[in-house]
Amino acid sequence: MKEKEIRSSAKERKKEVMTSLEELGTTLYSQMEKGTFPWIEMPSRSIENIYYSPELRQYVLGDKRTRRSSRNIRHIRPFTQLVWAAYFTHELAENRKTSTLRDVYYSAQAYDVSFKDQQESNSIITDLETVADFAREDFNVFPEERSAIFGDLTIEYTVPGYEGRTLNLTSHPDGVMIGPALTSAEFVETKADKVIVIEKGGLFTRFIEEQVHNRFNSLLILTAGQAPRATRHFIHRLNKELDLPVFVFADGDPWGMHIAMVIISGSANTAHLRELTTPDARWSGVWATDIEDYKLPSEPLTDMDVKRLYELQKDPRYKGELWEREIKTFLKNRRKAEQEAFSRYGLTYIVDEYLPAKLEKAP
Amino acid sequence: MTEVFEEISAADFFYRNRDIAGFTNPARAIFSSVRELVENSLDASELVRAPPEIYIRLSYEGEAGPEAAIYKMRVEDNGSGVPARHIPSAFGQVLFGSKFKLKQARGTFGLGGKMAILYGQITTHEPAYVASSTGTLKVYSYKMMIDIQRNCPIILDRKIHVNNERWRGTIVEFCLKGDYFRAMTKILEYLKQTAVMNPYANITFVDPKGRLYKFTRVTTKMPPSPKETSPHPHGVDVETIQRLIQITPCKNMLDFMKTHFHRVGETIALRFLWSTGFIERMDPKSLKPEEMDRLLEAMKKSDEFLKGIDMEYLRSLIETTGCQDMLDFMKTHINMTDEIAVLRLLLLAGLIKTKDPRKLKPGEIVKLVRMMEQFDGFLPPDPSCLSPIGEELLEAGVLKEMKPEFVAVYQRKPSTYSGHPFIVETAIAYGGNVPKKGDITLYRFANRIPLLYDEASDVSWRIIKDINWRRYRVTPDMPIAVLVHICSTKIPYKTVGKEFVADRPEVKREILNGMREVARQLQHFLTKQEHIETERKRLTTFSKYLPKIAQFSTELAGKEEPPDITELLRSVRRFEREGD
C-alpha cells in the first residue's frame, strides 16, 4: 500500500477563519465611521430558501438574502449578540481555546449581552456560521457529544501544549475521542485504504477485537447514534484529504438509514455550510433486503417507523435505486433488525461473513 | 307574620329577628353597630348640610365568653341633633321616627341605631347614654333603657347642660358584646369605603387597642340633598304602610292614596282602588232618595248629555235593572263607557265608599301592598328624589382614599326598574394604593352605603366576571378597582340581609354600560402608558446596544479608537420626538 502525500488543511483554515471575523469587524467599523447604522447581509435560512442540490447531493441555500440592521429596534439585540459572538470566537481562536455552545451561552453574560436561553444563543452561532461562511467548529465551538476513531492513522496535534506531537490512532484499544484536539489535528500518514463507520459502541468494540482494521485495512469510526457535526467533518476530511472510501453500517431501520444519509448528504439545518458531507460515502447496511437475505431475527416496524419511512420517501436526498428499493422493502416486509441481530449466527459471523460480502458488493 | 305583629311589640319582633338586621354573631354585631350609627350621623349632618365630623371610639370593658368581649362604643357627630322631647323615643322606641315621607336615605331599616342600642342592652344589661343639642343654649342628656315588651323607653336619668358654645350634634354611648378582632378588617374597610363615598366627611376612629384611624375630608362641598318625596306605590312594603296608617289623618282610602304616595292623583287612585276591590260595591236598588238626588245633581254638573235624565226615569231604571253594582248600572243604562268618568261621577255624588285606612286589618295591608306592586297604572316615579354623589365628588373620594395613577368616573342617566327610579354611578381606579390581588377589586355602594358582604352574589360581581377585560388592555395582575354605586328609592336587594343587589335586567344593563364607559377611559390611559413605555424601552435599547456593537467591532477590526456613534444615538432620539 503506497503512502499518500498528505495535504495539511487545519492551519490554513484557522487563518482563514480569523481573517473572516476580522473583516466582519472592519466592515461594521467603517459603516459606523460613515455615520450609518451598522448592518449585515447574509443568505436567508428560512425554509423557503432551502433547496436540495442534486449536484452537491446536499441541501443548499437559495439566492434569497436577509439584511439585519441595527437601525431596527427588533434587530439591534440579536445584531449585538452576533457581533459579540464574532468577537468572542475571535478571542477563542487567538488564545487557542475551545468552548461549547453551553459555554457561549454563559460567557455572554459577562459582557451584558445575555441570551434569553440556549436556543437563542445557538441560533446566533448559526447566524455567525452563515455570515462568516464557516462551521462553528472552525470557531472552536464544539459539540458536547463525542464519538471515536480507531485505526492506523497518524496525526499531528496543533492544540496548545501538543503542537508537533504525533499519535497513531491504534494506540488505545477503546479508540480515540474525536474532540477538538483531534478535529484540529493534521493528518500525517495512514496505511488504511478505507473508513468503516459504525453506529453502535458494542459493534465498534467487537470490530476492534476481531482485528477488522487489520483484516480489512481500514479506519473504524464510532458515531454513537447520529454523527456529531465534528465527526461528519472529520469523515469528510478523511474522504477528501486522504481519498479514502467510506462505508456506513447502521441499524436496519429508517433511523439507521438516516444516520448514513446525514453523513452522506447532511441535513437541512446545515444548508448554509459545506464540508460536513461525504457524498461518496456508501450506506452498506443493515439493508431491508439483508433482513431477508440473511434471515436475521427481526421486529415489526412501529407506527412511528412507518410514518418516518413515508417521510423519507418524499425526501429529495432519498432519490436513487438503492434507497428507493430499500424503503419499499421495509414497507413491504414491515420488519426491522439491529446490527446485533447477526449474533444469532455467532459473535464473529458479522466480521467473517457479512462484512466481506458487503464491502465487496459495494460499487 | 301578621300574627307576630299583633302579639308582640316591634322591639320584640326585631329582637327575635335580629339576623335580618345584621346582628347574627358578636363579630357581625359590632360591625353593624358601627355601621348603623355612622350612617345615622352622616344622615343627620346632611340634614343640616354641615360637612360631617364623626368620631367613633370602641373601648374594651371586659371579657364575655371565649370569642367575645364587652366593648363601650361612643359615636359623636355634628349633625342636626334631636329635639329634647324626641330623644327618648328616637333612641328607645323601635319604629319611631320623623321620616314618614321617603327620600333616598342611608339607614337600611330606618331603625339601625335603635337596633344597635337594643342589642347592646340585651347583651350587657347596661343603659345607653345619649346627649344631643340642636344648637340651642341647652344640651340634653339621657340615661335610658328600652322596655322591649312594651316598645318604649325607660328614662333613668335626664340632665340639661348649658351650651354656650352652641354645639350641635348627637353623642351616643352604650355597651355591647362583640368580637372586634374578627370584625376589624370589615370595620376598617367600611370606614375607608365610607370615606370614598363621603369625601366631605372627617371620620376619626379609635379602636380598642387605642389605634387611631383618621379619614380627612378633601372638600366641603356636599352633594345636593335629595328632594323628599312620598313613596312610590311600587316601592312600599308592609312596614311602610303600617307606619303610614299610624300617622295618617286621612279617613278614606282615596285620600290616603292621594296624600301619601308619589304621583298618585284622583284618577289613578280611583282606578287602582276600583280594580283592586278597595271600593265597596253598591247595589243600585239600595240607593236612598237623597243619594239619588245627589246622583242626578252630579250628572247634571258633569255632562250636558245627561241633563235629560230625571228622577222618574232614574227610578224606573233602578227598578228594572239586573245590575247589582252602580258601575255596571251606569255603564249599561246611562250609556257611559268610560269607567273613570263613571267613578268620578259617583265620587262627585258621594257614592264612593272606601275603608278607613286606619282600620285596615293586617291581612288587608298585605293585600294592599301586593296589589300596589302588581298594578300597572301608576305613573313612573320622578328621579329628582334620588341623590347620586356626582362625578366630581366621586372622583375626589377615589383620589383621596386610593391615590390612584388614573381614575375615571361616570354617572348614568336616571332609569327605572319595575317603577322604581335609580341612577348608577361607576368609577375605575388604576395603580397607586389600589390593591394588587390578581383580580379586580370591586367596591359596591347602595345609596352611598358600602356593601361588604356576599360580594360574589352581587350583580356587579357577575358583570365584572362577564366583561372581557383584555379588550380594555386590562390583565389580571394589574392593580384595578371598580366602584359601582346604585342609588334608588328602592334598591333591588336580593335577600332581607340587604347586602347584595339582584340582577334585574334594567339594573344590570345600566351597571354594565357604566362599567364599560369607565373601562374605555382606562383603556385610553393604558394605551398611552404603553406607548410611552415602548418609546422609553426603544431608547434604552439603542443606547445599551449600539456602544457594544462599536466596542466589539473595534476589537475585531483591530482599531485603537471606537467609531463615533453619538450622532447615531442622537438620530434615534430625534426620531422619538417626532414620533411622539
Structure characterization notes:
The complex is a heterodimer of chains A (363) and B (580). With 363 residues, chain A is an alpha/beta fold. Chain A folds into two domains: 10-142, Winged helix-like DNA-binding domain superfamily/Winged helix DNA-binding domain (Arc Repressor Mutant, subunit A, Orthogonal Bundle); 148-152 and 188-361, 3-Layer(aba) Sandwich (Dna Topoisomerase Vi A Subunit, Chain: A, domain 2). Chain A is 42% helix and 17% strand. Chain A contains 13 helices and 17 strands. In chain A, the strands form six sheets. A six-stranded mixed β-sheet of chain A has the order 10-7-13-12-14-15. In chain A, strand 14, helix 9 (254-265) and strand 15 (282-285) form a beta-alpha-beta unit. In chain A, helix 1 (10-33) packs across helix 2, helix 2 (76-95) crosses helix 4 (118-132) and helix 3 crosses helix 4. An eight-stranded mixed β-sheet of chain B has the order 5-4-3-6-2-1-7-8. In chain B, a hairpin with a 5-residue loop joins strand 7 and strand 8. In chain B, helix 3 (26-47) packs antiparallel against helix 5, helix 12 (326-333) crosses helix 13 and helix 17 (505-557) packs antiparallel against helix 18. The longest helix of chain B has 53 residues, at 505-557. The interface between A and B is medium-sized, with 26 and 22 residues.
